[in-house]
Structures are given as C-alpha cells and as structure tokens.
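quick one, 88 residues, struct below
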Amino acid sequence: MFELKKELEHKVPSKVKSEPHYLVLLDYIANKELKNKEHLSSYLGQEVALVESWLKENKQVGAKTMREKVTHLEVLKKCQGLTKEFLE
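---
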C-alpha cells in the first residue's frame, strides 16, 4: 500500500496532486488496502462496472441519487485514468 502511494507521489505531476480525484485515489488505496497497481486497476474496474450497472438498472430513482451516482462514476473513471497514465 505504501509502495503504491509512493510510486504515485513520484510519478504524478504536482498540478495533478492538487486535484480532488487524486486525493480520492489515495483514499481508495489506503482504505481498501490496495497493495499493487494490478489490485488497484482491478478494484477500480469492478467499481466502475458496478456503478454503471446500477445506473442502468435504477433509472427510476430520484434526481439527487442519480446525480450522486453519476458523480461517483466520474470520479472513479478519473481515478482509473490516473492509474493507467501513471502506473501502467
């Protein structure tokens, strides 16, 4: 977990480090105890698929809930992009 965070700290430019989705990515690594980039990529892929599936199946929910899920999906995809760009 610490090695993965260190690798990100080393590879990610400072302007990206101030963006909210970068901090979320660090939280995912710490909170889910993700130990390597393969584990991180797998986790993010599963989460994206889960939220996309939820959105397809729950089109009748309220606008607030839908907005929250779409925002969550956008953050996950940005985290996925960071992972691909800087760790693969």
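The chain has one domain: 2-87.
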